[in-house]
Design a protein that fits this description.
The chain is an alpha/beta fold and 497 residues long. It has 2 domains: 231 residues, no CATH class; 251 residues, 4-Layer Sandwich (Nitrilase/N-carbamoyl-D-aminoacid amidohydrolase), CATH 3.60.110.10. The chain is built from 16 helices and 14 strands. Strands 6-5-4-3-2-13 form a 6-stranded mixed beta sheet. Strands 7-8-9-10-11-12 form a 6-stranded mixed beta sheet. A hairpin with a 5-residue loop joins strand 11 and strand 12. The longest helix has 23 residues. The protein is globular and about 75 Å long.
Length: 497
């Protein structure tokens, strides 16, 4: 009977974790996150280190298996791995990320086992779990609970504390809910925490009305090209000419725009192999006083390194090289051991190198643009550091790797949060969606249909200035969470002495 009860608890934890992604895009059922996290918090009370790790691991596995199992599409459909092996690989990936999620929750066994400590300690540990995942092994900052408030009043806090502060508030609400289910709860602590949440929600509404940045006075016309290139044909050499012709055909009617954007790796070869094509584009863009920004892999001959890049042609020249690479997608860890082992480890362009950490911003039409390629847009601090001196944000991506899964919509939601955190408008160009223009409040102002070829025309109003988050990043809430945990652990040790 004891084993059965334990199994039921683990099943409930797995199910609760699996429900959490429903609070995020494309579902937006934000209260689900609070209920889901409350189940985990209730089960972490009065547990040993081993029990806390096991329970949070099960919860995390449910969360990631439901929320990021779209990696199966990349592994199976584009990595050409048989379905059973792809399923095993996806499961192992989700287990590994779940372990990284779970490790910080062992701290829950070290704090005082009292309601007041759980109310403040568990939200702090949740933030540390998200922060830990943002940098360990290059990071996997996906499924942050703060994204559930992209469209609630709490979003008003994003320009101050960023997504992790919203995660803390979400976790605090979950901790309150977990205490309400207990017969011997600390009434005073619950009331104080509830008042704090209520104050945060109401003040969030008023913070939404604050203009953290100012218009520069310009209004630029922008065209984003969505080519919808078949991912399985993209890197086939015989398809290259047709791909270039289609890009040029889509672009031809729009040379009057101030900025034209092609998505990540829109040109599936290095500039050396298509220099005549690029030269023609450059000349045409100059004649029309247009800036063409195109995703393309580049090669540094003296360093013998490949980069995932965007280049600017025409009215303004420039280049940005990606600084955050996707493990196994853009580089292979322990390459000497894995390269060639299975076909998945030989994906096209999986030998990129890191771009320099300090690169000049693209300067287009007299405005500076902070650029993030694909995966980089999910790193709050990285984007904030670039956005300080920028008046616009640009992200290009190739989400065709994830098929018709929920991944592109999740990716879009995270991009919207970056615009909101930094109060700067964003241009998002993708290969097959979600292609969109986003204003400085994180609202999508224009978009086009996914999984189709098309061009999105619109206007963007650059903005100058900095938000609090642009200046500080996530460090205030991370440091606060560290101090809370350190203080609670020290308090327990003093009490036990």
């Amino acid at each position: 009977m004891m084993r059965l009860a334990r199994g039921q608890k683990f099943l409930a934890l797995f199910a609760s974790g699996a429900l959490l992604p429903l609070s995020l895009a494309p579902f937006y059922l934000w209260p689900v996150a609070i209920a889901s996290m409350a189940v985990l918090f209730r089960n972490l009370q009065e547990q040993s280190l081993k029990q806390a790790l096991a329970k949070s691991l099960v919860f995390g596995f449910g969360m990631f298996f439901a929320g990021v199992s779209w990696v199966y599409v990349s592994i199976h459909e584009h990595g050409f791995i048989p379905a059973p092996l792809a399923l095993i690989a996806t499961t192992l990936f989700c287990l590994f990320i779940a372990l990284l999620f779970a490790l910080p929750f062992t701290l829950s066994a070290l704090i005082p086992q009292k309601p007041a400590s759980w109310l403040i300690g568990l939200p702090a540990i949740w933030v540390l779990s998200e922060w830990f995942r943002s940098w360990i092994f290059t990071g996997f900052p996906w499924l942050y609970s703060g994204y559930t408030h992209t469209e609630t009043w709490l979003s008003g806090w994003a320009p101050i504390g960023g997504v992790m502060w919203l995660s803390f508030l979400t976790a605090l609400a979950a901790a309150i809910l977990s205490q309400l289910t207990q017969p011997h709860r600390n009434q005073r602590s619950v009331k104080l925490a509830s008042l704090a949440i209520a104050a945060a929600v109401v003040s969030g509404y008023f913070l939404q009305q604050v203009n953290w940045t100012s218009p520069t006075g310009k209004n630029l016309s922008v065209v984003l090209i969505q080519p919808n290139t078949d991912q399985n044909k993209k890197w086939v050499y015989s398809e290259l000419e047709g791909i270039l012709q289609e890009l040029q055909s889509q672009t031809q009617p729009h040379w009057g725009a101030d900025i034209i954007i092609w998505p990540e790796a829109a040109i599936p070869t290095t500039p050396k192999n298509v220099w005549k094509f690029l030269d023609r584009l450059d000349q045409q863009a100059k004649v029309n006083q247009t800036a063409l920004i195109a995703g393309i892999p580049t090669y540094h001959s003296s360093k013998r390194l490949f980069f995932n890049s965007v280049i600017a042609l025409g009215a303004n020249r420039g280049q940005y090289n990606k600084t955050r690479l996707v493990p196994f997608g853009e580089y292979i860890p322990v390459e000497s051991l894995l390269r060639g082992l299975i076909r998945f480890f030989n994906l096209p362009m999986s030998s990129f190198s890191l771009g320099d950490a300090d690169q000049p911003l693209l300067n287009i039409a007299g405005e500076k643009i902070a650029t993030a390629i694909c995966y980089e847009i999910v790193y709050p601090n990285l984007v904030a550091s670039m956005a300080r001196e920028a008046s616009m944000l640009l992200t290009v991506s190739n989400d065709a790797w994830f098929g018709r899964s929920i991944a592109p919509r999740q990716h879009m939601q995270m991009a919207r949060m970056r615009a909101l955190e930094n109060a700067k408008p964003m241009m998002r160009g993708t290969s097959n969606g979600v292609t969109a223009l986003v204003d400085h409040r994180g609202e999508i102002t224009a978009t086009i249909e996914q999984f189709s070829a098309g061009e999105l025309s619109g206007n963007i109003a650059p903005r100058s200035g900095q938000t609090v988050f642009s200046q500080t990043g996530s460090w205030p809430i991370v440091i606060l969470s560290l101090l809370i945990c350190a203080g609670l652990i020290a308090r327990r040790r003093i009490a036990a002495a």
